[in-house]
Amino acid sequence: MKELTDRALDTANVLGAEYADVRVVRRRDESIAIKTGRVEGVASGESEGFGVRVLVDGAWGFAASHVLTVAEADRIAGEAIRIARASATALRNRTVLDDRPAAHGRYETPLVEDPFEVPLEAKIADLLAADQAAAGVKGIAFTESSYAAQREWKTFAATDGSLTEQVITHVGSGVEANAVDGDEHQRRSYPDSGGGWQAAGYEYIRGLGLKDRAESLADEAVALLAAPQCPSGQFTIVLDPSQLYLQVHESCGHPTELDRVFGTEASYAGTSFLTTDKLDEGFRYGSDLIDIVADATAPGGMGTFGWDDEGVAAQAVPLIQSGILVGYLSSRETAPRIGRQSSGAMRADSWNRIPLIRMTNINLLPKPGMSLDEIVADTDDGLYLASNRSWSIDDRRLNFQFATEVAYEIKGGKKGRLFKNPTYTGITYEFWRSCDAVGDARSYVMLGTPNCGKGEPGQTGHVGHAVPGARFRDVRVGVGKW
Amino acid sequence: MNDDRARDALALAEAALAEALRHGVSEAEALVMAEDSALTRFANSEIHQNVAETNVVINLRCVVGRRVGVASSGRTDQEGLRRLAESAAAIARVVDELEDWSGLPGPTETHPVAAGYSPATAAASPEFRAEAARAVIDAADAAGVVAYGSFATGSESTAVANSKGIRVGGTRTTSQLITVSMGPAGGTGYAESAAVDAQTIDAAALGREAAAKARATAEAVSIEPGEYPVVLEEYAVVDLLDMLGYLGFSALAVQEERSFFEPGKRIGSELITVADDGRDPAGLPMWFDYEGVAKQRVELIDRGICRGVVYDAQTAARAGVGSTGHGLPAPNPYGPFPLNMVMAAGTASRDDLIAGLDRGLLVTRFHYTNPVHPKLAIVTGMTRDGTFLVEGGRIVGPVRNLRYTQSYLDALAGTVAVARDRRTLRGFLGGVVVPAVRIENWTFTGGTEH
Question: For residue B178, what is the nearest residue in chain A, using CA coordinates?
């Protein structure tokens, strides 16, 4: 491998690169999909290749190939240089990278039980048992259960002498029960609508206890068919971690990506309302209770690693402190523009994509005081919303609308009857300023999503979110008509 | 087969199939997807990302009796193929039987669509893409706005070989240029084009279109959310077709009772006719699917009436019909998809569409749409890059972006005019050919600050 990385960097140097890096990645995937008690799909996959990124005359070029030979390293390095020279024909500001120490070392996701060593039959049996428990409930039309594991072996080398090796393992699994009656289709899922995901081994899957939760989950999906429509109006809402993590993802994680702030994602995903003047002025993003950190060192998070894909060491960076904007997710190119060092958030979706600023683990920190149950007990009149069903947010990350699988009425501090089809909407900073209770460590849980989309060509990111539950006042609930 | 790359891909598929059959399986299918693609991206009126890749994926489906296993790999050497076959066969031996497994599909007659391949696109260079980016940037400079966007070019060779005798391969090319312009006082505009032949994309014209809209949307004002008649430009109509294809026109969605589709049910006005046609040269053609079955034209909606859905081999067998050639790579829990939707043109000019609005909104495109109630096709999303108030048939001025929560079925039913001109664009499911439309009612449920 070192022969290939050395050759790619040498060739890039000889051809005029002022900086170059190369990543060699081998990825292994395994997935199981079960529908209504039947194993629909079991697949394994392997992908390997390398990508060379070069900076020539202040302009970027990148090329990648699945052919792991020295001759191909020469070709790809040359192609990257040619591409960079083409970029230079439409360049107005030379790229300048921050200084960072050369990166050296090895990182491996800590795990107890290697998911790829657990026999496939055993993993199928575990998932099938959970799925069948849900499918067996009267009134369930279909169930969907899934398991997936991914491991990446990644070598990073750069012309500044950096050389790191990482082995990163992610696993995820979940059960979903669906009830259908005419035009009404209700769904309940556990631990989250996309499954629970962590950087861990199979011990995480065992710990989810999918089978134990499946039957009650399915009962609730059936009960939702007959439940009344969620009322519309201004409400106090309490968000379960299974919804709050996505609220953090969409309305804090993405708008604090500094490349969005600088417009470099404008043509696809959009920009951000959190412009750098708001950093300077100490913009009030949320209430005093809101502390959000980008923590690439958090145990179990899918945004946890040793170094990012520019060779910047993993770190914890505050984004929001006591409700005030204090930082961004950044890169070696963007951080100097606000007088800072990279926050180590450059991540690439495998060997054939450039690193982009991505979320690591964007965590809403718990507040000592009330458990989530105590927050509910402290609420006279409101709604408890759990498990995301749909999401949408505008191109500057201000106006959002979420639907959840279920709402529970809260009356006199107690969770009561179910409501179906709940939605809520708001403006990001108004919403976070309305937060008057954040749960303590007892509801703090690491969740995440394996399908965060960004970039052109498209990239899919694995990101983590540790959150407790929280309460928000005067939120608009119920939109649309059906 | 339309070129040497397709022949190479088919030879690799045959080699993978032969390796699979040495592992004692009863059926096997090798799918090879090879691509050479590149994308030049620009922002703040300069190229900031510029990438290219060479990649190949071999997807091997092995069947033992009624047990199915799938493995994929990027390794093309004999040892890589051996390991791939071993992996797929091993999975097939441990999974449960699929009681309704119908077997792999057999050969169908496939004929390449010559219009699906452009040598110029296959040979597109970084310099060619940079020139197009500069043309967009120059148009933005001339209008006093800032350019953002991307220009993608690529060739994709696909080949399928299976134990039932399918041997098919083909190469197609695609290209797409998108641009967002941002002007003073919050103005933004958008333009896009997709084509088989990248040389036919007029980058300067797209740059001028987006720049003019960015100028026209400066100083947008808030408008109360509520119900408005709308004219949707082609860029917005893409989302209607994409979402309805995803939610309703897949045979699997119907079989799982998730779809709104019922044969003969009226879901649209008389003006709505939509087909999926992988052979239509107006789109981005592909003449066989990922199971190697010839793509058929499927009438999805005929003058407002639900007519058909698309099938892959498995959903077709369940329904007792033949595959329409809409299979995706295995394993595929999502079912078949319409990847080449074509909406019939109407008779109205763009000016006619706008002239028909007494008081309504002209919408350029939608952003971040997501189903809220899948079976009723209720979708939420935002407008973006050009929303205008129209009064008395004339554009009055720009308005700030709005959130909507709207049944796309109701939108089809409320379509009162369809434009005679159409654009070829890319949706999230594939190439789409669409006109602009006027719809008598659209439910906007919120606003934002820009």
Answer: A267
Rounded to two decimals, the ipTM of the complex is 0.96
Q: Which residue of B177, B403, B407, B443 is the best one to mutate when testing the A interface, meaning the one whose CB has the most A CBs within 10 A?
A: B403
Q: Is B332 on the interface with A (CB under 8 A)?
A: yes
Dist. CA B189–CA B191, nearest whole Å: 7
Which of A66, A93, A392 comes nearest B55 by C-beta? A66
Q: In Å, how far is A368's CA from the nearest CA of chain B?
A: 34
Q: Which of A90, A427, A479 shows the shortest C-beta gap to B405?
A: A479
Reference A388, options A188, A230, A220; nearest CA is A188
The verdict on A129 touching B (C-beta cutoff 8 Å) is: no
| DSSP helix/strand/coil, A469 | coil
Q: Does A84 touch chain B (CB under 8 A)?
A: yes
Number of other CB atoms surrounding residue B99 within 10 Å: 7
pTM for this structure? 0.96
- Local confidence band at B218 (pLDDT 50, 70, 90 cut-offs): very high
Which residues numbered 283-312 in A keep a CB inside 8 Å of some CB on B? none
CB distance from A82 to chain B under 8 Å?
A: yes
Q: Which two tokens stand for residue B407?
A: 């049944």
The confidence score (pLDDT) of residue A129 equals: 97
For A313, B359, B441, the CA distances from B415, given in Å and listed in that order, are 55, 16, 9
| Contact at CB, A392 and B368, closer than 8 angstroms | yes
Q: How far is A312 from chain B (nearest CA, A)?
A: 20
pLDDT tens digits, chain A, 482 residues: what are they? 899 999 999 999 999 999 999 999 999 999 999 999 999 889 999 999 999 999 999 999 999 999 999 999 999 999 999 999 999 999 999 999 999 999 999 999 999 999 999 999 999 999 999 999 999 999 999 999 999 999 999 999 999 999 999 999 999 999 999 999 988 899 999 998 889 999 999 999 999 999 999 999 999 999 999 999 999 999 999 999 999 999 999 999 999 999 999 999 999 989 999 999 999 999 999 999 999 999 999 999 999 999 999 999 999 999 999 999 999 999 999 999 999 999 999 999 999 999 999 999 999 999 999 999 999 999 999 999 999 999 999 999 999 999 999 999 999 999 999 999 999 999 999 999 999 999 999 999 999 999 999 999 999 999 999 999 999 999 999 975 55
Considering only CB atoms, B134 lies closest to which of A51, A89, A265, namely: A89
pLDDT of residue B2: 63
Q: CB–CB of B400/B221 below 8 Å? A: yes
- Which residues of chain A make contact with B182, given a CB cutoff of 8 A? 263, 266
CA dist., res. B47 & res. A89, Å (int): 8
Partner residue opposite B50 with nearest CB, options A62, A65, A482: A62
Three-class SS string for chain B?
CCCHHHHHHHHHHHHHHHHHHCCCCCEEEEEEEEEEEEEEEEECCEEEEEEEEEEEEEEEEEEECCEEEEEEECCCCHHHHHHHHHHHHHHHHHCCCCCCCCCCCCCCCCCCCHHHCCHHHHCCCHHHHHHHHHHHHHHHHHHCCEEEEEEEEEEEEEEEEECCCCEEEEEEEEEEEEEEEECHHHCEEEEEEEECCHHHCCHHHHHHHHHHHHHHCCCCECCCCCEEEEEECHHHHHHHHHHHHHHCCEHHHHHCCCCCCCCCCECCCCCCCEEECCCCCCCCCCCECCCCCECCCEEEEECCEECCCECCHHHHHHHCCCCCCCCCCCCCCCCCCCCEEEECCCCECHHHHHHCCCEEEEEEEEEEEEEEEHHHCEEEEEEEEEEEEEECCEEEEEECCEEEEEEHHHHHHCEEEEEEEEEEEECCCCEEEEEEEEEEEEEEEEECCC
